[in-house]
Amino acid sequence: MVGTSNAALIVTATAQIDAAIASDSLPNESRILDKHGLLLRDSQPQIAGRYLEEPVWIGGSDLHPVDSMYTAPHQRHLPSLMADLDVWMQRSNVPALVHAAIAHAQFETIHPFVDGNGRTGRALIHTVLRHRGLTVNGTLPLSAGILRSPGSYFDALTSYRAGDIAPIVQLVAEAALRATKLGAWLGKEIADVRASWEHQVTARHDATDWRILDVLIRQPLIDAPPPPASPPSYPSPLPTRARPWSGWRPTASSSAHRWPRTATPGRPQTSSIFWTSSRRRQIAGRPLRVDAVSLSRGHRFRPAFRRCENHQHLTC
Fold it and tell me: How much is the pLDDT for 255?
C-alpha cells in the first residue's frame, strides 16, 4: 500500500502543478488555499485548504519544539503574515526569479499549513513565474534542482530567515537553469520515442492509431474501459446472394462434374465454398469464370479474383 499512497501523492502534486500553470492570473492568498486544498483533498481532507490551528515545528521531538530545526509563527499571526505575502506577490518591479524565490522562502517561513507546505511552496514558484511570463505553456522541473541537495536548500532557508536572501535566490536561479537544460533533454527524448513509433505502426496514414500515439505522448498514463461481458456482434461480411456451403470440400483432384451446381457456359455463377489450401482461406461469393472450352475439357472452375476498390482485401 506504500506504493499506492506514493502514487496518489504524485498524482495530486502533478494536478497542483498543472493548476499553477493553467492560469496567468495574479497569485494571491485565496489561490494558495485552493492549491493546498487540491493537494490534500483526497489524502487529508480534514486539513485541506485550511490554515493550521495549533503550533507546528520542524524536526526535534514530537512533544515540544525546544530542539526543533524551525518553529513556525503562532497561528494568530497567520492573517497578517499571509496578507503581507500577498502584497509581495503583486509586485512587478523585481526580476522574476528573485520575485519567485523570495515568495517561496517567505511562504516556507510562514509555514501556514499542518502538512503540504513544501509542495505548495514549490507550486507557488511556478505560479509566480507563469504570471511574470517566464514560463508559457509548460513547467520547468524546478523541484529536481531545488531538492538536489536538501541540506543546501534548508541552509538557504535558514539564511533567509536570518536576513540574507542571496542563498535562496541563487539556489532558485541555478535550479531554473538546470531545469531548462533538463527540460530540453527530456523533450528530445520524447520526440525520439515518438519518431521510433513511426516504424512500428503499419496502419493507414489517416487511421486513428496515429492520433492515439500523439495522445500517449501528451499523457503517458491513460484509463481504458473494461472489456464488454460478451463480444460485440457484427453483420456478416458475406453478400446476401452467397450461401455458405459446409457439406462439400473440393480438393486439388476435384473435377468439374463434382461441383454441386451446374455452370452455364459463358455465364458467371456464384458459389460459396471453403477452398482447401495451405492457408485454409475462406472463399465465399466469388463468381466462377466458366466457358465452353473449360466445360469440354473437364477443367475445374477457379474463382475470378479482383481487387476491391474500397478495401484492401481480395473480393469478387
Answer: 45
- Burial string for 142-169 (b: 16+ CB within 10 Å, else e) reads bbebbeeeeeebeebbebbeeeeeebbb
Q: What is the pTM for the complete model shown? A: 0.61
Instruction: Give the Cα separation of 140 and 129 in Å (integer).
Output: 10
In a domain, 35, yes or no: yes
User: How remote is the C-alpha of 142 from its chain's centroid?
Assistant: 20
Range of the domain at 263: 256-315
Compute the mean pLDDT over every residue in the chain, rounded to the nearest whole number: 75
pLDDT in tens, 237-263: 555 454 554 444 544 444 444 444 444
Query: Can you tell me the distance from the alpha carbon of 86 to that of 88, in angstroms, rounded to the nearest whole number?
Result: 5
Which DSSP category does 258 fall into?
G
Question: CA-CA distances (angstroms) from residue 38 to 44, 124, 130, 152?
Answer: 10, 13, 19, 29
CA torsion 16-18-24-27 (nearest 10°) is 10
Q: Phi/psi of residue 259, each to 5°? A: -70, 145
Structural domains in the chain (count): 2
Asked which of 190, 212, 244 is the last residue of a domain, the reply is: 190
* pLDDT of amino acid 111: 94
Same domain, 185 and 260: no
